[in-house]
Amino acid sequence: MANTQKDPAVQKTSKLRYDLSEIRINKTVSELIHMGHDLRDKVPFESLAEFKPVKRDVVTGIEHVEGKLISELLPLRHKRLAASPFSFFRGTDELMAYDLSHQTSSNIPVVISGDAHIGNFGFYASPERKLLFDLNDFDESTIGSWDWDVRRLLVSIILAGELNGLDADKITSIEKSAVQTYQQILEQCFDDHSALERYYFSTEVENFLKSESDGNSLPKIWEKIKRSALSRDSEKVVKKFTTLDVKGHLVFRENPPKTVHVSQKRYQQVADHLQKYLQTVTPDVAVLLSQFHISDIVRHSVGVGSFGTRCYLVLLTAIDGSHLVLQIKEALQTRRFQGLDVTTKYSQSGPDNGERIVTCQQVLQRASDPFLGFYHNNDSGRSFYVRQFWDMKESVELNGLDTDDFTNYAKICALLLARGHAQSPTAGMVRGYIGKKKKLVNSLVDWANAYSKQVHQDYKLFKEAYDTGKLAEEES
């Protein structure tokens, strides 16, 4: 993507503005652990168990969120939300965040995913072309209390477990094993590993499988998913998503309204903004991208909660004829419900949302997509982040997992969540607070079980509005 214009704003090097000072503490690990232990007197484990119902209008809240989305995509978005309580839960992260802001919490800050449900872990490629498995969604990432992520993981285990036909007792057992895994990993991180060892922890699949196989059976479908992930690269995207136009040029295949070509004006805007994006990647990636030119751009919507945001695919062709596909995703303001942000003592109003997402992703993941970057559209005020599309990205299909696979998968997700949180120095306080206590396990599980009933109630209200046409009707 050679830059033909010398725009001073483009040439200026971007600096991350997301403030991480809240997780930088001038204390030793021992002092942090003692601080966390002492916090139990102020925030006893029993207080975490109580779910406090929050008065809000679910449908009105969802409609407010959708006011910033593309209207023609809302019918498909509603259809996806209506598929099951778990799908609804996945697509309404802002609703749980609003509720969490009204619950008792330890308020020990770490960099959190903000949406650490069991479906937001998956395979992807490292810069060295190794297959990794880790957290893979960071749209809601921020600085927040560690337990927000753990609670969201637990509720997702309940809803996904119900979808798989597991009984309540078995699901509760899986929840407890997930929290216990989180406790064990944080204990190991701060008792047995140095700061550098925590940082260099590998999520490369081959090493990961070997290191975690001792005493723990791994999901039997892992090898199958790994093989599928290894085949997902830019050239396969080209085969699946493109065709030749009447002039013989390679272009994206349309599939309206999910995939449509952008206007010439939007095409030029995206092309111009990608020059800003180049200032946020490393020099080697910028030099690599200078060998490519833009061949086509489409709006391509994905996901559940993010379906309806402004997302694009950019087909790039290199001077040697090879291809690369970049995905551009709109970065919405986090914690958005009923027109009000969910403000906590760690909320920030200044940082660009694309910067926020990229910053938190790079903290939480052991290795990130080398093409990860961002830009801000000054004209519209919208933020975007950029990454490579597909590139060995794959996820585990949760539906149909047998009980053993589901149990082990949930524990792996808890392990990775703990490893991600451990990158924040303040996680030493979390280690001291949570210890090995079963009372903490039972408290978080009790809360999650109570909240899952709230999700079912919210889903019922949404489904009634959907079925009676109070929301946009499904397209024919």
Account of the 3D structure:
This protein has 476 residues and is α+β, with helices and mostly antiparallel strands. The protein has one domain. Helix content is 46%, strand content 14%. The strands form five sheets. A six-stranded antiparallel sheet has the order 7-8-9-10-14-13, sandwiched between helices. A hairpin with a 4-residue loop joins strand 9 and strand 10. The relative contact order is 0.22. About 2% of the residues have low confidence.
Summarize the topology.
Elements: H1 8-11, H2 29-42, H3 45-48, H4 58-66, H5 74-81, H6 85-91, H7 93-100, E1 109-112, E2 121-125, E3 131-135, E4 142-145, H8 146-163, H9 168-191, H10 195-200, H11 205-213, H12 222-230, H13 234-241, E5 242-244, E6 250-252, E7 259-261, H14 264-277, H15 283-289, E8 292-300, E9 311-318, E10 323-331, E11 336-337, E12 340-341, H16 353-364, E13 373-377, E14 382-388, H17 403-421, H18 427-434, H19 438-467
Helix pairs in contact: 2-18, 6-8, 8-9, 8-17, 8-19, 9-17, 9-18, 9-19
